[in-house]
Structure formats: structure tokens, C-alpha cells
Design a protein that fits this description.
Elements lengths: L2 H10 L6 H7 L11 E4 L1 H7 L3 H14 L7 E7 L2 E6 L1 H15 L13 E5 L11 H19 L3 E5 L7 H13 L2 H6 L1 H18 L2 H14 L3 H25 L16 H10 L3 E4 L2 E4 L9 E4 L7 H16 L3 E5 L5 H13 L8 E4 L4 E3 L14 H19 L5 H21 L7 E3 L1 H4 L7 H18 L1 H7 L4 H4 L5 H11 L1 H11 L2 H21 L8 H24 L9
Parallel strand pairs: 4-5, 4-9, 9-10, 11-12
Antiparallel strand pairs: 1-3, 2-3, 6-7, 7-8
Helix pairs in contact: 5-21, 5-24, 7-9, 7-10, 10-11, 12-13, 13-14, 15-16, 18-24, 19-24, 21-23, 21-24, 22-23, 23-24
């Protein structure tokens, strides 16, 4: 049990709160001189009917008297209503390094969610449309969330809920029949399908009857008429071929790629269930569910022509997933504009008494913009993810080449691929997910900034220290003594140890809030603290052999923690930069 958890257990003996409540309240002070942990006593004032300052003083006396339980605490100070705890430096040094060595390449991993079935739905591009940077947000965010749950023992099912159905496919079928070019489709499927789709909308302004033709084409598709079904399947196949090239490059794999179309035949079951509950109301020929008690507008289930819509397909998907996967949590990683849609769908499921109705979560995210607005692509007003990735890799290759003119070309290209892709992923994950992202190449590829290259450079620096130490020293590290580890007493060393210790807690917080940015900020703080230690304290030139071993053990713990955090974000570290 590390110092954070031990401290919670101590507080639990004297405070009438649960472990979870104490963990939520316990703070990390902004400056080391204020302590390692701080417990604000404001929460206790009402129940104890005392001033927070008095509560803090009394708690200090009680905890200090319990010497059997508090040997790991160096001292306790009261600052107003805050109880500030300073952890014994020797305890922290031995405890953190021993835990890190025991965890190996899985620091912070747990079985907290063992036996839990977690569905994470993400990416979900639209068939026959470009895979753009908006899809990158859901793809990288969803993959990180899935990885974090997986790391904590959950049975994770990665779903790519493809947008492969709806009235837009009626438009596409009509457009293809009128203007499609097979040769252009073979050369660049998405570009050609986008061309005819855009042309449909342009022509429909002058010929509104095309909209009627499109609705009829979609109706025929829903009825599985041969011609429409064959065209739809062709569009789906060529689109997936292009999408899979991107997924392969990003090393992302899905367990389920059922698109919207898969659930269409299950909608009658949804309608039947809603009818049994007497929830369907006719409105201008359409069927809706009234959600006034939830403060929401009615949810459209079937259009007046009997065709389905997103909500009806999502409801069908919920029933299917509950039956087939018995999920404990069904997470939708979808943009903020769909907030109302999911509120409606979840409310309908709850009102209808769907199984797992309370086990669905919408994880929303913001939009993506370029800082200078200059990044245009062959598709006009859409930034293609493929172009974004390639640009990042090429810019990274140029930076590496200017700094390492002796690096073999194969190694350079491999490093540029990993760093360039990592830089893009990190840009999507470093801040709170509901914040908009504004891309700046200068910022994203800055080896000294809040970037993936900075984190990867720190990992490479740790590896370089290990290489320079030599094989004999590394063998000695396997049996480093507690006596040696207790020498890690300097402020910089303790700050590094503290940030390693906080990594599992950042993972826990990231999981509960579905905010990988919490973990990303923690590993960035760790990297900053390590580089400060690296610049201020000698490592390979330590004044005695035991201290050398201790500092190399600390370096190894940093490397393992940073590498694990990067991997959870889908970022591959490189050995040198």
C-alpha cells in the first residue's frame, strides 16, 4: 500500500467518511513546502459543528498519537483549515522504487474492473465520406479510454459503429446512377463518392424531385431490393478498404464493426416494445416518444414514411448489446453536438425499461481547428486525417534529420513515424476532451513543450543513461538495496518519486471521468520533474556507488512509468532521438 492509500486508511479511523469520499477530498498541494498531501476540513464542519481550523488541530493531535499507524508520516502541519502531511522520505523512496520494480512494464495496472464488460464505441466514420480530423478525435480518445479500462482488468469490446445507413445513402445511390465513374472509384473511392454526393446536393437545389428519388431509393434499400443493396455493399466495401489503411497505420483494431445497417432489422422489436409500454405517439404521421418528464423534446422513432432514423437504430443497438454482451457500461465517444440525441435515446431506454438502461454514457468532445487556417486538402473544406498524419511525420523527419545527420535512414523513418503519429495523438488527448483543439505545428512538434516528442525524448534520455551506465551496473540494479534507495533524499528526487506514485491515481481519475488528459498531465508532470532532477543532480557521476544505483533505479522507474502512460495513449516510444 503506497503513502496515498495508507494515508486514506489513517484518516478513515478518525473521520466519518468513506474511502471514496476521502480520496475525492484529499489534495496534492501546489508547492512541495506545503506538504505532500493536504486534507481540507471544511467538509467536516457541518457534521461536527465545529470550525474547520479547530477540527484540523484536533485531527492532528489524534493522528500523531497513533504512532503504530503513522510511521510513514514525517510530520503533520496545520495551515488554517488544512491538515498538511509530509511523507517520510526514506519510506517513499523504498516503497515507490520497489513497487515500480515489481510492476515491471505495467505500473499502475490493476484488476479493479475484472469481470466487467465494457463496450467503447468510437471512431465510427461515415461510409462513402472522407475520414477527417473530427473522426481522429473520437478515434484517439476512444482508443485511450478502451486501453485504460483494459489495463485495469476489464473485458473491453472496441466497437466501430460505422455510419452506413440512412437517407444519405438514398441520395448516394441516386447520385451514383446519374454521375458515377467506375474508373474514378477504382482510383480513389472516397474522393469519387464524395464528388457525386456533393453534386447531388448542388443539382437538388434546381431539381427538388431528386430528394423524392433519394427517399424512394433508401426505402428500396431498407426493403433489401437487389440493385440498391448491391450498390450499398460496394460503397461500404471500398470505404472500409480505405479506412482500414488508416487503422492499420495507427495500429488500431476493433472487436466489432457492425454499422447502423446491422441494427435495422431489429427495429421492429424496439417498436413492439415501445408499443407494449404504450409509449409511441403519432405526430404528423411519425411515431415519437414523449419525454416531457425528462425536460426533453419528443424523440422521433419512425418517420412518417416508416423509415428509420439514428435514434431508432441506437435503441436497437442497445437491446442487441445488452443481450449479446451483457455490458456493465456502454460508452459512446461521440462529439458534443450529439448531446441532445443521446439524452433522448437514454431517456427513451429508461422510460421503456430497457435492460442496462442506466449503464450507458455519452463521452463528448469538442471540435478541431488549425491555428493559421492554412491547412487545406484535396477535398476542399475538410482536413483529411491521412494528410494530417503524413504532414506530421514529414515535419518530424525534417527535425530529426537536422539534429541527427548520422542516423541511418531506416531508423530515421521509423522514429519519424512513431514521433509524428504520437505528436498528433497527444494533441488530441492532452487537454480536457470538451475543449476545442487548435492545431499548431510549432507547438505540436516542440521537443521542449507540452508535447509527445518531449515525453518521448525523456524516455530516450532514460534509456541513454542506462546504456552509458553499462551492463555490470545494470546487473547490480537487479539487487539494489533498501539502504541505497534511502539515499534518495534530495527535493528533486522526492518530487520525481511523488509523481511516479501518483500515476496509478491519475489512471483511476482518468477512468472515472473518461478523461485521458488526467493521465497525460500526470506523465508530463513526471517528465518535467525528472528533467529538472537530471539537470540539477549528477546521476552517472554520483558521489558514491550506492547513490549511483539508487538514481539509476529511479531513472528506470521513470522510464517504465512514462512508457506505460504513452502506450495507454496509443503512443509508441522510441529508443533514441
Amino acid at each position: 500500500m503506497n503513502s496515498h492509500d495508507k494515508l486514506i486508511d489513517v484518516l478513515l479511523r478518525y473521520i466519518d467518511l468513506s474511502k471514496e469520499e476521502i480520496a475525492e477530498i484529499l489534495e496534492i498541494p501546489p508547492r512541495p513546502e506545503l506538504g505532500d498531501y493536504a486534507f481540507p476540513c471544511f467538509t467536516l464542519a457541518k457534521s461536527l459543528r465545529q470550525a474547520p481550523q479547530k477540527i484540523a488541530l484536533e485531527l492532528k493531535d489524534k493522528i500523531e498519537a497513533d504512532t503504530d499507524q503513522t510511521a510513514f508520516i514525517e510530520r503533520i502541519e496545520v495551515a488554517g483549515a488544512y491538515l498538511n502531511f509530509f511523507i517520510d522520505r526514506s519510506f517513499r523512496a523504498v516503497d515507490v522504487i520497489r513497487r515500480s520494480i515489481a510492476a515491471g512494464d505495467r505500473p499502475g495496472a490493476s484488476d479493479k474492473y475484472k469481470g466487467k464488460n465494457i463496450i467503447v464505441e468510437y471512431s465510427s466514420p461515415n461510409i462513402a465520406k472522407p475520414f477527417h480530423v473530427g473522426h481522429a478525435f473520437t478515434t484517439f480518445l476512444g482508443e485511450a479510454i478502451a486501453n485504460i479500462y483494459d489495463y485495469q482488468g476489464a473485458n473491453v469490446f472496441r466497437f466501430n459503429h460505422l455510419g452506413d445507413y440512412g437517407t444519405q445513402f438514398g441520395k448516394l445511390i441516386v447520385a451514383w446512377k446519374l454521375w458515377g465513374d467506375e474508373a474514378a472509384l477504382a482510383e480513389n473511392a472516397i474522393k469519387e463518392l464524395t464528388r457525386v454526393y456533393v453534386k447531388f446536393h448542388q443539382e437538388a437545389e434546381q431539381k427538388p424531385e431528386l430528394e423524392d428519388e433519394a427517399r424512394e431509393a433508401f426505402r428500396r434499400l431498407e426493403n433489401r431490393e437487389e440493385e440498391e443493396l448491391e450498390l450499398w455493399q460496394q460503397f461500404r466495401d471500398v470505404s472500409l478498404e480505405e479506412f482500414n489503411q488508416i487503422y492499420s497505420r495507427l495500429k488500431i483494431n476493433f472487436d466489432n464493426t457492425n454499422g447502423e445497417s446491422f441494427y435495422s432489422h431489429l427495429i421492429p422489436e424496439v417498436v413492439s416494445l415501445l408499443q407494449e409500454k404504450d409509449l409511441l405517439i403519432e405526430s404528423e404521421g411519425a411515431l415519437v416518444v414523449d419525454l416531457e418528464e425528462y425536460g426533453l423534446k419528443p424523440c422521433l422513432v419512425l418517420k412518417s414514411d416508416g423509415s428509420t432514423i439514428y435514434a431508432s437504430r441506437d435503441l436497437a443497438a442497445m437491446l442487441y448489446r445488452a443481450k449479446e454482451y451483457d455490458y456493465d457500461l456502454n460508452i459512446y465517444v461521440v462529439g458534443l453536438p450529439q448531446k441532445n440525441h443521446f439524452e433522448q435515446v437514454f431517456a427513451v431506454a429508461k422510460k421503456a425499461g430497457f435492460p442496462k438502461a442506466d449503464n450507458n454514457v455519452h463521452v463528448a468532445f469538442g471540435t478541431v481547428k488549425m491555428a493559421d487556417g492554412s491547412f487545406s486538402t484535396r477535398s476542399g473544406n475538410v482536413i483529411l486525417l491521412e494528410d494530417l498524419l503524413e504532414t506530421s511525420v514529414e515535419k518530424t523527419a525534417a527535425i530529426i534529420r537536422s539534429n541527427n545527420d548520422d542516423m541511418p535512414e531506416a531508423e530515421l523513418r521509423d522514429s519519424a513515424e512513431k514521433i509524428g503519429l504520437g505528436a498528433v495523438r497527444y494533441a488530441f488527448l492532452r487537454n480536457g476532451r470538451e475543449r476545442d483543439i487548435i492545431f499548431s505545428w510549432e507547438e505540436m512538434l516542440d521537443f521542449e513543450g507540452d508535447t509527445a516528442p518531449y515525453l518521448m525524448y525523456t524516455v530516450a534520455r532514460c534509456n541513454a543513461l542506462a546504456r552509458k551506465a553499462g551492463t555490470d551496473i545494470l546487473l547490480e540494479l537487479q539487487t539494489v538495496s533498501d539502504t541505497a534507495l534511502k539515499l534518495l533524499q534530495e527535493d528533486e528526487e522526492q518530487e520525481v518519486l511523488k509523481n511516479i506514485e501518483l500515476f496509478p491515481h491519475s489512471l483511476e481519475r482518468a477512468t472515472l471521468t473518461h478523461e485521458p488528459s488526467v493521465m497525460m498531465r500526470q506523465i508530463m508532470t513526471l517528465a518535467r520533474s525528472f528533467n529538472k532532477f537530471y539537470h540539477n543532480q549528477p546521476i552517472l557521476r554520483s558521489y558514491n556507488h550506492n547513490l549511483l544505483l539508487a538514481r539509476l533505479a529511479l531513472t528506470g522507474a521513470v522510464e517504465r512509468t512514462l512508457r506505460a502512460g504513452l502506450k495507454l495513449a496509443g503512443i509508441e516510444a522510441v529508443e533514441r532521438m
